Amino acid sequence: ALRWVQQTIREFGGDPGKVTVFGESAGAQDLLALMLSPLAEGLFDKIVQQSSPSENIGTDSLKEEMTRGSLLSDAFKLTQQTQIAALRQVPADELQAMSESVYADYYHKAVIDGQILTAPISTLVERGDFTARQMIIGSNADEWYSYVEVPEAIDPDPQNGTSGLRRQTLLKAINGTWGTESEAVLAEVENEPDLR
After folding, report:
1. Residues 169-189 pLDDT 10s
2. Can you tell me the distance from the alpha carbon of 38 to that of 129, in angstroms, rounded to the nearest whole number?
3. What pTM does this model have?
4. Kind and range of the H or E element at 152?
């Protein structure tokens, strides 16, 4: 798509040297990976990254992701020789449903394949291997509430330390991102003056 933009932007009165891409949440994480890819060199020069915990973006090796990918074909009981062709014949709704079942507890990561990404994202950031020259980073207030199960989270006692949200539910939501640092992050959240 970005190559197409480069080829056609002048027809819309645009400048191929002034292309800005925008991403929010997972899209912002994807943008960071894109910005660190040598294949994106020259395709855009600015990014707007909204609500992305960039420091927590993990990467997997190509071997790890291929192994994980085989779980889906295994779920459909496909043989190694025919799995790609057979998966292409599976109706999209069935493929989606099986994917959600097989990968229910897995958050997909960028893959170090040697072409799109050549090293872990954290390494590329530390080296400054950015293809974009300018970046705006922003955040949406309270976006993480979308990960809290509301019926379980509402606490009828407003006197607890989390203004109506049960501590365990908050900790569960935070733990998915922050892992071993969850208690420290929760302490910061509980000290937030406008916690709703």
Report:
1. 666 767 766 667 777 777 776
2. 8
3. 0.64
4. helix 150-153
